[in-house]
Each structure stands twice: as C-alpha cells, then as structure tokens.
Amino acid sequence: MYERAKEFVHHIEHLPVINEMLTRRYARKFAVANNVNLFLGVYPDFASATADAPTSKPLGYDNEAPASAEMYRFRMQAIAPCDYPVAFWLARLMQPGQTLLDFGGHVGVLYYALTRYLNFPESFGWEIYDVPAVIREARQFAASNHGSERLSFYDDLSQADPCELMLFSGSLQYVEEPLSSIVGRLKSRPNYLLINMLPVHPTQAYVTLQNIGTAICPYRIYSASEIVEEVQKLGGEVIDEWKNTDKACPIPYHEAQSLDYYRGMLVRLNPEARAA
C-alpha cells in the first residue's frame, strides 16, 4: 500500500503543470535558505548556471561576507568519514622535506583536523591555495592559532612553491578549469594527486547550483569518462579509487542527475611528463 501511494505521488509530481509549480516553489526556497546545502537545476556549463543564479546571495566564496570565509570551522575538530582515505594515503606518502599543495583548502580546515591524527614529518610544508577573501581569513586565523607554523597561503596559483603532493578535497567541483589545466599551471608537476569528495556522474557532465548558506556557487559534476580523460592527459596512473558514501548530491526534480555518493582517487604522475 505504501509503495503504491509513493508511486502515485511520484507520478503526480512529474505531471508538467505540477512539476513546474513544485520547481518554482523549490527555487524560491533555494534562493533564500540559510545554513543549508541545497542544489538547484542542471546546466550545460558554468556560464549558463551563473546567469540563472539567484541574486539574493553573493556568487561564490570570494565575497566580503565573513561567514563564507569562516565556514567549516567545525570540521577542524575531527575528520569526517569522507576524510579517512586522505588520512590513510597521506600517512603513507608524506616524507620529510616535502610540500603538499591543498587546492581550495579554505583556511586549512583539513590540515588542522589531521594534526589530531597524523604525525607530520620533519620540515613537511602544507600550502593552501584559495580565493582572496578566504586566504585573508586563513592568514588571520593562522596568526592566532598554534600549530600553523608549517602553513603557507596563496591566492595566485602561479606563486605556489613546487610540491610533491597535490590535494583536491571537495574543491574541483567549484572551478570551471579542468584538472589537467590546473596542474599544468604549476611551477613543476607533483608526484601524486590526491582527489577526494568529487561528484562524478556515470555518464553525464553538467553544472548545477549549490546554496552553501552564505553564497550561491556554480557546481561542476564530472562524468566518469571526463575525469579519466583528465588523468590520461596528465599521463597519470590511478593507484587507488574509493566512494565517499557519506556525501550525496540530491538535485530536486532531476533524479537522473542526482548522486548517491562522491568519488575519490589517488593518481601517480610522472614529474617529467607534460599534459597532452
């Protein structure tokens, strides 16, 4: 009986008139909701998503609203289930004197959390690249917190020091630039790419909008073949892959484009190779 009722409601929701009404109502909620993580719409590219973004909130993390730069502080206290693959591999890859570049690392959220779990090697450096508004907050936060001595900050990727490890932890989806192009802008190629919390669809590539509470962000979904092609362009070898089952991307009224889990991978690069 319950399943029949569920199917009936599902059928009603997909009637054109009803679907349009529900979609508009949800769009109004999406535009003003706070302290949430909501997704809206499916678009072919960043430009289309940006053009359709509500004007009720700033666009992206690089804004003057302090809350955008102060987000995720709660995650500094402990790592989440989705962070364990990163902790696992860093414990095995980090060597004394090496440098890690944390692309989109915010104020150093994952670094501060991992200091509770990992013993960092001697002279191991952790660089953070992010947008200017976030980097300003990151520097202020580091100045008043013990344990930030190994951190350095950049809002210009070309200024970052050479690194052996490059980390993308829930950050690739916020940039239009593809992975191979980002790595190609570095002074030298890292030995490993550690990619985590990446939304990947089995067959489709598209962009949605995300309400992070303080701002609206275009949000890229890679197709499985697309991310494989990016790794191939870099001449990379996938050493490990995993699912982040505690992460999901539900896009109301777009079931076919919603994701039940995110993905991660460890990629080994040949430092002498060049992107295709």
Describe the protein in words.
With 276 residues, this protein is an alpha/beta fold. It folds into 2 domains: 1-32; 34-268, Rossmann fold (3-Layer(aba) Sandwich). The protein has helices spanning 2-13, 16-32, 46-51, 66-70, 84-93, 109-114, 132-143, 179-184, 224-233; strands at 38-43, 99-103, 125-129, 151-154, 165-169, 192-198, 200-201, 206-211, 216-223, 237-244, 262-268. The strands form 2 sheets. Strands 4-3-2-5-6-11-10 form a 7-stranded mixed β-sheet, with helices on one face. Strands 1-8-9-7 form a 4-stranded mixed β-sheet.
Write the layout of secondary structure elements.
Blueprint: H1 2-13, H2 16-32, E1 38-43, H3 46-51, H4 66-70, H5 84-93, E2 99-103, H6 109-114, E3 125-129, H7 132-143, E4 151-154, E5 165-169, H8 179-184, E6 192-198, E7 200-201, E8 206-211, E9 216-223, H9 224-233, E10 237-244, E11 262-268
Parallel strand pairs: 2-3, 2-5, 3-4, 5-6, 7-9
Antiparallel strand pairs: 1-8, 6-11, 8-9, 10-11
